[in-house]
Records
---
Amino acid sequence: MSTSGAFGVQILSSGVALPQRVVTNRDLESLMDTTDEWITKRTGIRQRYSVDPAKGENTRTLGLNAAKQAIERAGVTGPDLDLVIVATMTPDMPTPATAPLIAHALGTNDAGAFDLSAACSGFVFSLNTAAALIGSGAYSTVLVVGVDLLSRHVEFSTRGRSTSVLFGDAAGAVVMRRCTDPAKGLLAQAMCSDGGGATHLYIPCDKDNMLCEDDDPEAFPLDQLRMHGQQVFRFAVSKFPNLIAETLDAAGLGPNDIDHYVCHQSNARILEAARQRFDIPTEKLRVNIDRYGNTVAASIPLVFDELNTEHLIKPGQKVMFLGFGAGLTWGSSLWQF
Ligand code: UT7
């Protein structure tokens, strides 16, 4: 855990982009052996969005649309950006990365641009990276995008029901800028991993290169997400509260000092367990998984954008961003607004 450098850093704005197609739990009932009741009770999810590639919806276009909304709301233009970071585990292609394509489409002037792959922790890791680079004085105006299309890696069938009901496609973005008030910006942060838990959540691409000996490469198509749901659940419910406690300790704060906990939306039950552990009021920990499902790197900016557009984030407030997911990875980013 460490705090940022000599300059202040502000999150100026946010933006989101969603595919046109909404897929409800009832829609899934017609595709696989599942029920609205099972999905709602186990996860809190009622619907999710899913891209239609034939309509030109992909990682690049969704990320770009969220970015355009964020930079317009920030009152900046493409040439003002000197760095673009895209958090994604579902780029359209292995290379080029998504970030240079978005930077180019926004008309930046040779801005640095790279993708950051840390699954559901990707947006938090990107916020921390951007804040450190701005705080050090190296960069001034940075766009961070979180975008993921897990519909590409799940099967909408009874065989794939344990993962396909959970995930949704979306993009979210923020614009961050250096400011003269050094009190604004990161108060504490954490970026952690445990590759020993990689097999709990992974997408194998090659039958000779499976991470888990117990996983039968013939039993399920390659390029599809394999998840050991209960292990992930146990990891999340134990790690998530520890992460909150460690981040509060690092900043010398208590749970009540935080105005908003902006959390990765993987399961409403996981969020509720953390909320109860710290006695956090419901209005301080927004849950929107019912409308979007788990959107991986996009889930945190989707929550932040809701709070932001409802004018609930105010100057002087403290906001803790929290993410955890495949890798295994987990991280926090505690901000003074
Ligand atoms: O960003 C991180 C992403 N991943 C997560 O956060 C996942 C964390 N894990 C979870 O949220 C939960 O483990 C799940 C919601 C995925 C599953 O809930 P669970 O209570 O752990 O269920 P389970 O895996 O133990 O499965 C219970 C039963 C099984 O049937 P049997 O063996 O008891 O007959 C499954 O086959 O539920 C069955 N099942 C379903 N039934 C209806 C699994 N998926 C479905 C489904 N609809 N979609």
Note: The radius of gyration is 19 Å.
---
Amino acid sequence: MTTQVERMSLLKAPTSLPLVAPSILSSDFAHLGDECKAVLVSGADLLHLDVMDGYFVPNLTMGPALCASLRGALPEAYLDVHLMVNKPLMYVQPFADAGANLFTTHVEAEDDPFVVAEAARKAGMDTGIAINPPTDVEEILPYIETFDLILVMSVNPGFSGQAFIPEVLSKVSTISERLRPDQRLQMDGGVGPKTCEACREAGCDVLVAASAIFGTDDYASAITGLRGH
Ligand code: DX5
Ligand code: ZN
């Protein structure tokens, strides 16, 4: 059992923005604990876990058991769980029990985002809502004020290593002007040395990156580069 209910949310009281969230999807799974420790000592703020069910996206990745193992090995880490699944509601309690800090689901998923947010918050987690590149920004506007974090996907989800879709930056501006200071705006997909500045300038304050961090030999300089300072 974790104590995340009492834990101060990294999202609401960040020390320095933007936050950098390495996506472990591109890490060496044979050495996952060491990979996570390496990015944390290199300056990562969050660990981003990409959960895929094979239906919402054409890939299978990780579930609550892996999250629980990371929580056990890294008691202080902020675990940012991004669910690319059709029915997120059934995973709220399993991920809360596994020590997840942030539970982000998609506006395109089948369950009602308000119901998912209420359940996740009750279970002690921060809440996030994500929007895919082809989805009109209007679809997410009714939900924005309810969530702690809005995630704008800059690739079609399913795999790391894809090219950034610049057209999504206009969504960031639309969403950004509607956020309170205690809410975060996250970008995920193709974020790297060539694209991070545009993300930051558009208003993103949480940057997810898989290949731009785990694909390099120097995690610290990759993270510093993404943060911009
Ligand atoms: C894609 C995932 C991303 C992915 C990012 O579906 O949500 O988090 O791991 O990978 P890069 O940074 O390599 O585009
Ligand atoms: Zn992700």
Note: Residues 18-227 form a domain with the TIM Barrel fold (CATH 3.20.20.70).
